[in-house]
Every structure is written in structure tokens, then in C-alpha cells.
């Protein structure tokens, strides 16, 4: 699926006790770039011993744009210290401005603290209003800043204790990485919406710990995967010890709500998310899709890049040959400028090009990971027909998306989701396919060897795992920004 429909969320990274902390954080963010392309930032911790004990100083650099464009050699050199955290952002709460770029920093009574966050706190608007009534002054309009104010207001000068009490006020999805003056803390919400993993780098003289949104970041820097940060866990890493404790928040609806869309689209296929290979999940989606909705055809092609594993699975299960009928241009910027109105009908051809030699005269099965508004699929099918395809059958490797996500993914509103208000036949006619079929929800769970008791699939079935009381307040606030 081409970016612009479902928009990525955020990625977090943290490292403790490594001489190249800032550079490894840069590489970690590079690996997580797919999770957010609006802004990026790094905060490092430089520790100096004094007669009063270790004293920590934070160094920060963040800006709007992509990781490779933001950080130069001089920036990485200035980010001194043995520990650091980083963040890549796509805004889900708050606009795309430098004041909302993360990590966010503050000086608390207990010392400097920096926070990076992946997720969405659905009651942040309610908490924000209450904090403002108590005199809190917010610098930005993102939900992460709420946590900083809760920490500042907490009477405890022990950061982990203050964090534990503050997290009990939050409702929704969060994976936090927090850097204080003497410790690194990772925290994940009790339902485990967003992934967060622990890794380590061990050599003869030191042991370094890493926290990241996905295992692909560990792979890039040569770190060993240790385990997931558990749902509801607060993991504190310091020079003295590693401490783990749980935030116990009872949820009457369920005990787990891992985001199934991480496996459908968001995560990198080479990551292991929620203990499962993303690549293998997507391939099994395609296999199951072939069992449910096979069709006589000459070739199976993916919509690159996220449709590739599912198309491979569909091809192998159906026996229909796999080909790259669409070639993607990976060098198109996010803000491609269309110079005149006359060329604006080029549309997806800026990013995709159809191979006439593969498509002409063929019956084509096109595999995409999801279908949101339908406009991109419509243009792709028009492109395939213009290249000479005899028949075009669209297969979607996930169920129909009927609702927005409120847990850290920027999604269209329900009224904009084509499957929420149109029949399968209406959608087929709109996009111009000879046939259209989605993976069933039952088939998705079969492919995952799991069920809705483990995963959140609210975008597919409308079963939201948490109270959404603050969502409408949040929407109204954002409209006024």
C-alpha cells in the first residue's frame, strides 16, 4: 500500500552504557524511519562524577524531516555521553511542528528528564485540561507532554515511583523510553498495544542495553535480542542494577490488545513483533487469502513494497506465478512538487510504473495489504489496464477497514473509509476491478494462530479495547489548533 492512507505512527530507541550511544541511536532511528517521517530527535546523557555523586547533563538535537537529512557529523559529535534516547515521529496527537518533535525534555525536582513516546493517550485532552486548571503551562499540543506534567506534579522525587503513579492516570496506548540524569526507563501500557523490545551488546569490557520499537533496529547495530518489554512493565536500567515492576491496571474488557495492524502493514517485514515474524504473518495472510478467494489468472503481482510477502504467499498457495508487475520508485520525496495542473493526473505513476511486458494480455491478481479510501487502488487498476492487462482481480490481505485507530496511528475518519459505508460490489465498481475480495477476519486469526482476545483489531471489527471518552474532546481541540 502506498503511504498516504494509513499513516505511520512513531518509533522509539534508547541505549544505556555505550561509548557510541548517539551514533547507535542515529542508526536505530534510521532502521525505524518507516514508523515516522515528520521529525526526529536524539537526547544524550553525559555523566560526570562529583563529590555529590554522579551528575548528568542532557544534550539534545531534533528537527523536522528524515533522519538522514537531520543529523550531520557535527550534531552526533555534540551529543556526548554513554546513553541516549531517540524518536522518529508521525503526528497522531498535535501537529507537525518543531515544538511537538520528540524527545521532549524538562528539568524536574529530581533532575533532567527526556521522554520519547509511541502510541496515543486517549484521555490526554481530559488530563491536559485538568492540569491546566491547576496551573500547568504546556509548550506544545501533543499527548506526550501530559506525562511530563504528571511527573512534575507528583510529590515523589523518586522517578520510577512518580512514573508508576502517573501511568495509572493514562488510558490508551503507550511505549515510553525515558532518560533521566542517572537511568534509562522503558514503560509499556498494560494492554501492550505497541511493540517495545529489549536488546543488549556485550563485549569484554562492558554490557550495553538497548530498547527499541522493533527488532530491526537491534539487527542494524548488532545487538542481541533479549525479550519484549512486557505489557504493563516498567523497566529501569542504571549503573547499579536493572529493576522491573508492573503497573497493575484492571481492564474489564480484556487483558491484551496488541495491534494486529503492526503485522498487516506498519512494522518492517524483517522485524519480530509480539513474538512473531512479520514477514511470516504477511505471507500466511496471502496463503489464507488464496484459500478463501482464489481465481483463474495468469500472474500474481504485489503492490510494492508492503504487498510483497502476501503476494508470495498467495502465489505459492494458488500455484499462479509471481511477478513484479509494478516497479516502485524509491527515490520520490514525500513532498513531490507537481509543476502544472496538466500533469496532476499522473497520480500514483510518480511512485509506481507498470511493466507492459509482464501485464499485456494477462489475467492479473493484484495483492495489497489493505484498502482504505479506494482512490489509490482505482488509479493502480487503471494503470494496469492501460498496460494491457486482460483482467484485474484485486485481493486485499486483511479484512475491510471500517473504523479509525485511536491508539497511535493516524487514520482517516469512519466516513472516509470506503468499506464502512459501501458494499463489496459498490467498492469493486468504484475501483474498476473485475473482482474484489478481502481476507476474512476469521481467516486473519487463523493465519496468525491467535484471536481477538490477544490482538486489537478495532479498525476491522469496531471493538475498541479502552474507554474513548477523551477522543471527541481531543478531536475538537485539534480542529481549533
Task: Walk me through what this model shows.
With 481 residues, this protein is of the alpha+beta class. It has helices spanning 21-31, 67-70, 73-78, 124-133, 144-153, 159-167, 215-221, 261-266, 278-293, 308-318, 356-359, 375-386, 418-421, 424-431, 441-448, 458-461, 469-479, and strands at residues 10-16, 39-50, 53-64, 83-89, 104-108, 111-121, 172-179, 183-188, 197-202, 207-212, 224-228, 233-238, 242-246, 258-259, 272-273, 276-277, 299-302, 326-328, 352-354, 363-368, 391-396, 435-438, 455-456. A hairpin with a 3-residue loop joins β7 and β8 (183-188). α9 (278-293) packs across α15. The relative contact order is 0.12. Mean pLDDT is 89; it is low at 1-5, 334-338 and 476-481.
Helix content: 25-40%
Strand content: 25-35%
- Roughly how many Å apart are the termini? 30 Å
Mean pLDDT: 89
SS-based structural class?
A: alpha+beta
Report the major sheet.
7 strands, antiparallel
Gyration radius over CA: 23 Å
Number of strands: 23
Low-confidence stretches: 1-5, 334-338, 476-481
Shape, per Cα inertia axes: globular
**Number of DSSP helices?**
17
**Spatial order of the strands in the main sheet?**
3-2-4-1-10-9-11
